[in-house]
Amino acid sequence: MTIAFISDLHLTPDRPHSTEMFTTFASGARKYLNGLYILGDLFEYWIGDDGVSALGHESTEAAIRSVVDSGVPVYFLHGNRDFLVGEQFAKRTGCQLLPDPVVVEEDGLRILLTHGDALCTDDIDHQTARKQMLTSKWKLAFLNNPLESRFETADQMRKQSAVAKKTKSMEIMDVNQSAVEAMMKEHQVDIMIHGHTHKPAAHEFEIDGKLARRYVLGDWYEQKSLILLDQGKLTLRR
User: C-alpha angle 92/222/224, rounded to 5°?
Assistant: First the structure.
């Protein structure tokens, strides 16, 4: 049994090579995987399930569908860039949408999955914006706008985010260790996998005297990392 975890592909027509890599990966996934978890930010941005053609992501949806149709389940957990992915996307691709965070049991392990941005508690501006945009009221108001307006808003938000990152330290944009430990204790797990920070690594530490592990996925347009679970062992690959 081999399970794969990926995150932060940030697929966009501006980087066609990334989409090609994912399509190739999906083709192989049908042959050697028993499950695939996508932990958010599959897309650079998402303006609603009705905007797939406008964003040029039909091939990505088709690639996911092909994996599911081959008998390999695909699970999707929202990121801060694609939190508007909804039921229409799930229906078209056949993937299963997961809440964030969520505990899954695979190959004898209990693993806490999260995109990761909720753990960056030192980034006050991000947490404030995140809290607002995840409300049903904000989502409904945004999705009620015409596609062109949504596209313009998303583009503006991307530019604002890029500018904001230049003024923040790497420490502020990274996860807060206390937040990590609090979430793991809340869900009673000693293994966590997340993305968002683009800092692929495997961390070991102790929680209440017990060994805990945190695995971080990197992006795909520069790092192309993934985590494989096979015979009860997690391995970070780049």
Answer: 55
The answer to whether residue 228 scores a pLDDT higher than 90 is: yes
Over the stretch 94-125, which tens digit does the pLDDT of each residue have? Answer: 999 999 999 999 999 999 999 999 999 999 99
Strand-strand pairing, 233-237 and 74-77: unpaired
Non-local CB neighbours of 196 within 8 Å, separated by 6+ positions: 7, 8, 40, 41, 79, 80, 115, 116, 117, 119, 120
Cβ-Cβ contacts under 8 Å for 205 (sequence gap 6 or more): 177, 181, 211, 212, 214
Which value, to the nearest 10 degrees, does the dihedral of the CA atoms of residues 202, 221, 61, 78 take? 50
Domains of the chain, each with CATH number or no CATH: 2-237 (3.60.21.10)
Q: Which of 154-158, 181-185, 188-192, 226-230 has the lowest mean pLDDT?
A: 154-158
Would you place residue 200 in the very low, low, confident or very high pLDDT band (cuts 50, 70, 90)?
very high
Q: Please name the amino acid found at residue 102.
A: V
Q: What is the 3-state secondary structure (H, E, C) of 11-62?
A: ECCCCHHHHHHHHHHHHHHHHHCCEEEECCCCECCCCCHHHHHHHCCHHHHH
Cβ–Cβ < 8 Å for 96, 85: no
